[in-house]
Every structure is written in C-alpha cells, then in structure tokens.
Amino acid sequence: MPPAVAEYLKSNQDRFLEELQALLRIPSVSADPAFQPAMQQAAAFVHQQFESMGMTSEIVATAGHPIVYAEWLKKPGAPTVLVYGHYDVQPPDPLDLWTTPAFEPTIRDGKLFARGATDDKGQFFTHLKGAEAWLKTVGELPVNVKFVIEGEEEVGGANLDKFLEERKSQLACDVAVISDTSQYAPGIPAITYGLRGIIACEVTLTGPKKDLHSGVFGGSVANPVNMLCRLVAQLHDDQGRVQIPGFYDDVLELTPAEREQFAALPFDEAAYRQELGVKELSGEAGFTTLERRWARPTCDVNGMFGGYTGVGPKTIVPSKATAKITCRLVPHQDPAKITKSLEQFLRTRGPAGVSLTFTDFHGCPAFVFDPNSPYLTAAKAAIREGFRAEPVLIREGGSIPVVSTLKQILGVDTLLLGWGLNTDNLHSPDEHFTIADFHRGIASGAALWSQIAKL
Ligand code: BES
Ligand code: MN
Ligand code: MN
Questions:
Q1: What is the pLDDT of residues 242-265, one digit of tens each?
Q2: Domain-ending residue, one of 331, 364, 397
Q3: How far is the CA of 367 from the centre of ligand 1 (A)?
Q4: What is the pLDDT of residue 157?
Q5: Do 20 and 82 have their domain in common?
C-alpha cells in the first residue's frame, strides 16, 4: 500500500479503536425484539461512517432489521470487490459470567472485551477503516468497492437473500470479501477456503394436556421428556456416526491431499482439551479433530427443556418437551433434503402416546473456495503485508449463510479473511478482540485493495 496510507493507519490507531468502542456500546442483538431500537442505531452508526469517508451510502429497510449499503465506484475498468459484514450480535447471556458488562467495551491485557468485538463488528470495521485510509490520503481506491453490512446474520434471516436478489445488478462484482472467521492460531493468520453449512430446527413432544401428578398418574401415560431423551439418544451410534437415513449419502469425502494438508498444521491436542475444559475428545470414529470440525457433518442438540426446571424437586409428568437441533453440513449435502430426513427420522422413531411438532428454522449449504483462484494470491500478499506472517489455508466448522447466496445470486467466490481467534469467546461470555489483530486486520484490508488491483 502507498506509504501515505500506512502512515494514516499508524497515526489514527487510537481513533479507530474509539470508534469501534462506540459501535460496540450499541446492543444490537438481532434475536430479541426488545433490542429493536439498538438495531436502528447500529445501522445509523455504520451508515454515518460511510458518509464521513465520502462514500455513497443508504440504509435499506427490510421486513426485519435494516441493511446498510455503501459504494465507491470511481475506478472504471478496475475490479469490483464486495465486502460483507454483520452489525448484529448474539445475545450477551449469561450476563453474570462477564467480567465487565457486554456492552461496556473494556480494554484488558491488549484485548478489547465486548459482545461483537470479534463477531463481527470489530472484524468488518477493519474494511471501513482500510477504505477510509485510502480515501483520506490518496483520494481514491485502486478498486471499486461495495459494502453490504446486514443485521440478521445471527438469526439466519431471509431478508438479506431478498435484498441480494432484488439488487442483483447493482451488486455485480468480481469477488467478495468477508472478515468473520478466525486466524488459525495466534501468529498464524489464515485464509479460510471452506465453511460448513447448517440446518436448524426444533422438535416438541406433547403428552398429557397439562403437567400431571407423577404419583397419581405416572406410569399410565408416556412422559414426553423421557421420550425425547430416547429419541435424541438414537441420533448417533456408539461410533459417533449420525443415524439419520441418507445423512452421509452426498458427503464430499476429503481427498488424501487435503487430509495431509490438515495433518501438517500444528495442532496441540492437550492444549485444545485444556482450552475447552474436557478430559477427552470425542466425535465420529476414523477422523482427526480438524477433520471432524472442518469437513465432517454433525448433529447436535443445542438445548432441551420441558417439565420443571426450577430449584428443588417437583413431582410431575410434564406435558411437553422440546429439543433444539442443528446439523452442520459439508459440501454436496443439501440442507432441504437433510431437514426432511431428520424430520422423517424423528417421526418414525417418535414414540406412540405423544404427538410431535417439527419446526424448520433455517439452513444453508457448505462452501469451498476454488483453490486456483488468483484472488487467493492477492489475499495472501495482503495478509503478509498486514500481519508480517505467512497465512495458512484452512477450513472452518462454522457457517456464514451469505457465502453460498453470493455464489448463487452473484456468481462470485468469497475470500474469508479472519482476523480474530477461535479463543476470542465468540457467542460466549467475555468475547474479545486482540487490539493488535484489529490493527493488523485494517492494514491487511488496506493492502488487499492494491493487491487485487495488481492482478
Ligand atoms: N462468524 C460466525 C461464523 C464463524 C465463526 C465461522 C468462526 C468460522 C469461524 C457467524 O457469525 C456465525 O456465528 N454463524 C452462525 C450461522 C447461523 C446462525 C446461521 C453459526 O455458524 O452458528
Ligand atoms: Mn459472524
Ligand atoms: Mn456469530
């Protein structure tokens, strides 16, 4: 990047961090309607950022939370890059496990603690600052850029897809960039070339029309909580393989070369166990930990409830029991097909004596990037500039639904350039972002524009 841009990044570091803190103070929790005003406020904040750096920007209302769109298209003939990010965050709960409050950003130990610090406010913000540095010094960018910053990523919202479809021609681009993943490890930045997909659903079993005295009536009717446990227990065999019929039929198996590539990455199993607080690792037999996380499909119960969950005993046969279930999918698995098989599985194994309702929340397919794309070369060079370290190619187990939509609707691949760490407590208490990674991310982002222009 030009020396003036690098100089600007250096001398504005403190202000960048203060602005990020201002954004983090806005509790933009997309899942909870009580936070609706904060969603508007966060969108307005992002919009104002674009305006003040001289980009054309608008807040687009949707049936749900607004989308902020901005563009700078004054480089005809140069490539066009679309940057995606999300200003919504996960709920901060459980609140009592935060060292300092989730929406009062606090610096400790070179890290900025707040909900959204790394997922995704702190990460997408780097690209705004990278663009700002060019516009405020050189006066222009070496490429055309379009920004889409949405507010429903964490709830798998459908409104973004509609926006992308409606604005298909306005959003035309050559490549997309998302910073919403992680580095491989501290000091080892990464380009993520694959993500898992997901399906999310809920199953409820209903027995008696109300909770019953378990002494008086127990033994004479099916207990929905007992039945749900039996059902859920059938999802896996003792080798950790998912028992939904056809679950593995379309799975794209890892190539020997990929397995070697995974195995060559440094991985300290003992440190991993300790980080997670488990005595032993567990998963599908026949696969390594990285393979299980990045390239094998899974099925997990995210939460289960029913009956009495308060303090002390209560003697009832509950009326209802619910399980929230997600499956992570790998390339070639079809979310709709897997959802159907899961529902079918639950219904056929579902015990007599209770009724079953099934709710399908959302889903998206997995994604793998073309390993021969020239954009990979540009991204590697940009990260070398910003992090002063060699990036590794990895996959990730998480999902970013827009990635497959961008491919489907706009026909483009997405560069997943994560500046955070998986140990940044995303979706957990004490979420944080290493401040040095924030600034390295900004520098990599600023360098990316010129690296892509050079291709
Ligand atoms: N940024 C994450 C996804 C992520 C995190 C990918 C770390 C790779 C490494 C994203 O915000 C997220 O949480 N996605 C959800 C998607 C779901 C709500 C549709 C997920 O993966 O659970
Ligand atoms: Mn995210
Ligand atoms: Mn997230």
A1: 999 999 999 999 999 999 999 999
A2: 364
A3: 13
A4: 81
A5: yes
Q: What is the pLDDT of residue 370?
A: 86
Which residues span the domain enclosing 69? Answer: 3-195+366-453
- Residue type at 266 in one-letter notation: P
Please name the residue whose Cα sits nearest to atom 18 of ligand 1.
154
- Asked if residue 108 and residue 32 are part of one domain, the reply reads yes
| DSSP β-ladder status, 111-113 and 432-434 | antiparallel
Residue 247 lies inside a defined structural domain of this protein: yes
The reply to whether 338 and 390 lie within a common domain is no
Q: Which atom of ligand 1 is nearest to the CA of 326?
A: 22
Q: What residues contact residue 308 under an 8 Å CB cut-off, 6+ apart?
A: 211, 314, 316, 318
Q: What is the pTM of this model?
A: 0.95
How large is the C-alpha radius of gyration of the chain? 23
Residue 426 binned pLDDT confidence (cut-offs 50, 70, 90) = very high
Distance (angstroms) between ligand 1 centre and the Cα of 308 equals 32
Q: Kindly state whether residues 223 and 320 are assigned to the same domain.
A: yes
**pLDDT tens column, 196-205:** 999 999 999 9
Q: What is the mean pLDDT of residues 51-59?
A: 97
pLDDT of 351 reads: 81
Q: Are 129 and 121 in contact (CB under 8 A)?
A: no
167 & 180 share domain: yes
Under the banding of pLDDT at 50, 70 and 90, the label for residue 150 is very high
Give dist(CA 135, CA 1) in Å, integer.
13
pLDDT in the model for residue 350: 85
Residue nearest atom 19 in ligand 1 by C-alpha distance: 156
Residue 371: the pLDDT is: 81
Q: Is residue 286 part of a domain?
A: no
Whether 247 and 352 share a structural domain: yes
Whether the ω angle into residue 249 lies within 30 degrees of 0, i.e. cis, is no
Torsion of CA 45, 47, 50, 52, to 10 degrees: -60
> Which residue ranges have their beta carbon within 6 Å of ligand 1?
119-120, 153-154, 156, 180-182, 198, 396, 398-401, 426
Q: Indicate if 340 and 408 belong to the same structural domain.
A: no
Q: Is the pLDDT of residue 383 over 90?
A: yes
Q: Show which of 327, 343, 364 is a domain's final residue.
A: 364
State the distance from the centre of ligand 2 to the C-alpha of 87, rounded, in angstroms.
Answer: 9
Domain harbouring 328, CATH code = 3.30.70.360
Looking at the fold, whether 410 and 427 belong to one and the same domain comes out as yes
